[in-house]
Write a structure and sequence with these properties.
The protein is of the alpha/beta class. The protein contains 14 helices and 18 strands. Bound molecules: NADP nicotinamide-adenine-dinucleotide phosphate. The site of NADP nicotinamide-adenine-dinucleotide phosphate has 19 residues, from helix 1. Catalyzes the oxidation of glucose 6-phosphate to 6-phosphogluconolactone.
């Protein structure tokens, strides 16, 4: 791996402490950082190099996946860290930063490869990119890369504007857009796993009746009210994570696909998505907001009573959608996506239901969180956690392996210049294009805002969206009969019998 300098904007922030430093430390322990590595942390507050290093050490003690046992290893790791005071708007700070970066490159005798990681609010992206360019930080004789976190824009036009500005300093091959769902090992393999599962003799000829993609959260808006009240579930989850899951599921990746192939296949999915217009959005989209309710035995307030939320806010905390991909394989298969906050239980999963006569349905279940695994199950509607007849089919589980954090995988990929599992501009733009009529309909209030009690599975209209097509959301506890709770143990035992893929 080539030597590099990691220039971290937002080095004193929460994301850096909880995710970036632990990921870098794990890469260091696994010997996956460049042998000559320099990190320069940036923030407005004044800190000496030593106190910055002590803060990083503290965050590793709290958040690292590996226990920090060896003081020497820690010392060696922290030796790479320097701190520099920088106000994002102050041009002269970038000139001083350039001097520090060069000084360290000379000390370490390394090529000026520079990775600029923006762990700051998206409102700063354009200014930082412009100042990097003006100061000459990007003009050394090595590679340069820009890493940014979603959100990439607020709607289609702001996303395009942001991209145009970023392109003045970095070209598309140099921009690494993190969507941390793409860093999850299961998500990286779902296309492969689906197709290898489908190729099993018995399943090959069957038609897929429907696909459901669910990302339910128990948490409410927490500390992020200011951001979330202007984003909602549609911008925070749907436009990026959920559509990325859809793309990764429905592309069939040949082994060792190149970044270009992956990009092209994902683009094709987005292009084949049947577009909505703002007047027919009502038939395909359910908008919801949580009211007061009970979560895991505790009373919680409704969204508009949360601190920091505008009184009478119409913001969405839940979205359910029916989508259709117009290509030969998927054209007859409705795809349902839902995501929301303050729901009954935390789960990210994909359920593929196969066509079958009678009450028993064959399902392929891909669990992405909290655990990662894939397995077949035969279930009766409404009894899915109990009267389960499991044909001994196949299961692939990531549970036995140590599952790496998405940031570890993505930061490593960015350091080696592999953009496969980053969001490419075309697919970001196509996602915004698809979502824009829904945003317009929300803005013009063409769509009802259904209030659902916290601790449920969202508004009942989300169930009706499937019912009219003859389906229901699988694995909602309300579909499980009362006696089933007692059968959980045998259900687990039966699942354990499944054969590895
Ligand atoms: N936290 C997460 O888990 C998470 C997850 C996914 C995405 N994100 C995204 O990642 C970004 C950072 O989130 P965060 O939670 O780390 O935020 P945060 O805790 O509020 O930290 C913000 C950082 O930005 C720096 N900063 C703010 N204004 C600045 C300015 N004018 N000049 C220089 N530095 C400035 C702050 O440093 P000083 O205060 O020292 O200036 C601090 O280091 C956000 O866009 C967020 O949406 C966060």
């Amino acid at each position: 791996m080539e030597p590099a300098t990691f220039v971290l904007f937002g080095a004193t922030g929460d994301l850096a402490k909880r995710k970036i430093y632990p990921a870098l430390f794990q890469l260091f322990v696994d010997q996956k950082l460049p042998p000559s590595f320099s990190l320069i942390g940036l923030g407005r507050r004044g800190l000496s190099h030593e106190s910055f290093q002590a803060n990083v050490e503290q965050s590793l003690i709290t958040f690292s996946r590996s226990e920090v046992k060896d003081a020497d290893v820690m010392k060696k790791f922290l030796r790479a860290f320097r701190y520099h005071v920088l106000d994002i708007d102050r041009k002269e700070d970038y000139t001083k930063l350039l001097r520090l970066v060069e000084e360290r490159e000379n000390e370490l005798n390394i090529t000026p490869n520079r990775m600029f990681y923006l762990s700051v609010g998206p409102e700063f992206f354009e200014t930082i990119a412009a100042n990097i360019h003006e100061s000459g930080l990007d003009s050394a004789n090595g590679w340069k890369r820009l890493v940014i976190e979603k959100p990439f824009g607020h709607d289609l036009s702001s996303a395009r504007q942001l991209n145009t500005k970023l392109n003045q300093a970095f070209n598309e091959t140099e921009i690494y857009r993190i969507d941390h769902y793409l860093g999850k090992p299961m998500v990286q393999q779902i296309g492969h796993l689906l197709h290898s599962a489908l190729s099993e003799q018995e399943y090959r000829t069957r038609k897929i009746a429907s696909v459901q993609i669910t990302a339910n959260e128990v948490l409410g808006v927490e500390e992020r009210a200011g951001y979330y009240d202007h984003a909602g579930a549609i911008r925070d989850m749907f436009q990026n994570h959920m559509l990325q899951l859809l793309m990764m599921l429905t592309i069939e990746l040949p082994n060792r696909s190149s970044v270009e192939e992956v990009g092209k296949l994902k683009r094709n999915v987005m292009k084949a998505l049947k577009p909505l217009n703002k007047t027919d959005v009502t038939h395909h989209i359910i908008r919801g907001q949580y009211g007061a309710g009970e979560i895991q035995g505790e009373q919680v307030v409704g969204y508009t009573d949360e601190p920091g939320i505008e009184l009478g806010s119409h913001n969405d905390t839940f979205i359910a959608a029916r989508l259709q991909i117009n290509d030969p394989f998927w054209k007859d298969t409705p795809i349902y996506i839902r995501t929301g906050k303050r729901l009954k239980e935390k789960a990210t999963r994909i359920v593929i239901e196969f066509n079958s006569e009678g009450p028993l349905k064959d399902l392929l279940i891909i669990e992405i969180g909290p655990n990662e695994r894939i397995f077949f199950q035969r279930s009766q509607s409404g009894m899915e956690n109990s009267d389960v007849e499991i044909p001994i089919r196949s299961q692939h589980s990531f549970m036995k392996e140590v599952v790496k954090d998405a940031y570890e995988i993505l930061i490593h990929d960015a350091l080696i210049g592999d953009k496969t599992y980053f969001a490419h501009w075309d697919e970001v733009e196509l996602s915004w294009e698809w979502v824009q009529p829904i945003l317009d309909a929300y803005r013009e209030n063409l769509l009802p805002l259904h209030i659902y009690p916290a601790g449920t599975y969202g508004p009942s209209e989300s169930d009706k969206l499937l019912e009219i097509d003859g389906f229901h959301w699988w694995f909602d506890a309300k579909n499980v009969s009362i006696n089933d709770a007692t059968k959980g143990e045998s259900f687990e035992a039966q699942k354990a019998e499944l054969i590895e893929l």
